[in-house]
Amino acid sequence: MRLSSPFIFASNSVTRIMIWVVLALIPGIVAQVIYFGWGVIINAAIAIASALLFETLILSLRKRPVAPSLLDGSAIVTALLLAISLPPLTPWWIPFVGTGFAIVIAKHLYGGLGYNPFNPAMIGYAMLLIAFPKQMTAWLLPVMLADHPLTFSQLLQYSLHTHLPNSLSLDAVTGASPLDLVKTQTRLGQTIPMVLEQSSNRFGSLAGIGWEWINVWFLVGGLVLMARRIISWHIPLAMLTALIVMAGIFYLIDPNLYASPLFHLMSGATMLGAFFIATDPVTAATTVKGRLVYGALIGVLLYIIRQWGGYPDAIAFAVLLINMAVPTIDYYTKPRVFGEGRGN
C-alpha cells in the first residue's frame, strides 16, 4: 500500500516530539525575557490557554475525542510559537485572536493535525500583522536601553487594560527593531554605517542588543532537536545557507546599502524560523532533496522580503508562501522507485 504525506505518528510519539520542541524553545524564551521583559511569558500564558480553549470547542463541535488532541501537545506548541513571535507589549486580545485563528482556521478547517497545508502559528501571525499592524510593530526597547523598564505588573496591566503608568507613553517604551530600523533608514537615503553610528546604543556587536543572544539560544535549542533526531539538518542548513549567500552577494556589491550576512543571521526570528517553524513535519517537504529545495527557497524569499518587501522580518510570509509549493517540490524530488524505468 502506498502512503502519502504527511505521515502522522502515534499519539505518544507526537507528545514526545512536542515535549522536546517545548524544551528546546526554553533557552531562547529565557533570553527573550531577559532582554525584553515578562511580556513574553504573559503572551505565552494567554496564547496557551486560548489554544486549549479553542481546541476543546472545535473538537466538541466536530464530535471528536478531546483528550487525545489536548494531550498530544500540538496546540500548545502552536500557541507558544505564535506567542514568542509577538511583541512583548500587546493587549491580551492579540494572542487570543491570533491563537484562535491558528487553531480554528489554519488547523481544524483543513481537518486537524496532519491535514493542514500551512503552518498554523505563522497563519495566525500573518493575520495579526495584516489586521493589526500598529500593535504588531510596537516592540519594547531592550531592558538595558529603556529609561523605565516595565515591571511584570505593569506589563500585565497593559495586556489586560491597555494602560501604561501615567508618566509613560507608548512611544517612550517602544521602538523599531534593528531589522525595521535598517530597512526604513536606508530607504530614507542613509547608509548602513550611518544607521549604525546614529543608533549605536541599539546595536550590539552583530545585530542589535539582545537579538544576537536570542538567536544564539534558539540555535542551541535547534541543535538539541537535531541531536535527538526530532528534526533533520536539511531544512535549517539549506535555509541558512541560502540566506547567507543572498545577503553575502548584495553585501559585496554595496556594503553601504545592504547589511552583512551575520546581521541577517542574528537578527529577527532567523534561528527560530530555521529550526522550529520551517521544519514543521506536516507542512514541510518530505523528500530529502525536497527538504533542501524547500529550505533554500525559504532562505531566498526571506532575504527578498526583508530587503525589498513591506515587512522587516519575513519568516512567516516566506514559510507560508513556500508551504504552497510543497506538493510540487515533493512531486519533482521524489526518489525513483527501485526498478522504475528499467526493462523487465
Description:
With 344 residues, the chain is an all-alpha fold. The chain folds into two domains: 163 residues, no CATH class; 155 residues, no CATH class. It contains 18 helices and two strands. A two-stranded antiparallel ribbon has the order 1-2. Helix 2 packs parallel to helix 5, helix 12 packs parallel to helix 15 and helix 13 runs antiparallel to helix 15. It is globular and about 55 Å long.
Task: Compose a concise summary of this entry.
The protein has 344 residues and is mostly helical.
**How far is the first residue's CA from the last residue's CA?**
22 Å
- Average pLDDT reading: 88
Share of residues in strands: under 5%
Low-confidence stretches: 1-12
Largest sheet descriptor: 2 strands, antiparallel
Using DSSP, what is the number of strands? 2
Number of structurally distinct domains: 2
Structural class: mainly alpha
Count of alpha and pi helical runs: 18
- Which geometry do the CA atoms define? globular
SSE topology:
Layout: H1 11-36, H2 39-61, H3 67-71, H4 74-83, H5 93-107, H6 120-131, H7 133-136, E1 139-140, H8 152-161, H9 170-173, E2 174-175, H10 178-187, H11 192-198, H12 211-227, H13 234-253, H14 261-265, H15 270-277, H16 288-308, H17 315-323, H18 326-333
Antiparallel strand pairs: 1-2
